[in-house]
Amino acid sequence: MKHIVKILSLLVAISAFWIGLLQAAVVPRTHTWLLPIYFVVSLGCYGLLMVGIGLMQFPTCPQEAVLLQKDIAEAKDFFKHKGVDVGSD
């Protein structure tokens, strides 16, 4: 819930900044109308960066990998006894 509030407050702040730029005419109108596009592109880049960082910091769990291999072997044995072809391994 906190993350949603943070995103919404950021969106409101950016919208207020954009409307302020439109009203004050500090930046030419042709540039000001492009700000939402820049915001969407920046948000996409931020999302890709967060996914990349999450993938780089993804924890490896060797104990869980061993347990998963044991579960797979049990499932193969179970299905072999039921007459299901589960591959050559």
Automatic annotation (TrEMBL):
Identify the pathway.
Protein modification; protein glycosylation
Do the record's keywords include Endoplasmic reticulum? yes
Q: Give the transmembrane region(s).
A: 34-55
**Main location per the UniProt record:** endoplasmic reticulum
Record keywords: Endoplasmic reticulum, Membrane, Transmembrane, Transmembrane helix
Cross-referenced InterPro entries? DPM3
What subcellular locations does the record give?
Endoplasmic reticulum membrane
Give the family this protein belongs to, as stated in its UniProt record: Belongs to the DPM3 family.
Q: How does it assemble?
A: Component of the dolichol-phosphate mannose (DPM) synthase complex.
This molecule's function is given as: Stabilizer subunit of the dolichol-phosphate mannose (DPM) synthase complex; tethers catalytic subunit to the ER.
Instruction: Please give the name of this protein.
Output: Dolichol-phosphate mannosyltransferase subunit 3
* Taxonomic source organism: Microthlaspi erraticum
Species lineage, top-down?
A: Eukaryota, Viridiplantae, Streptophyta, Embryophyta, Tracheophyta
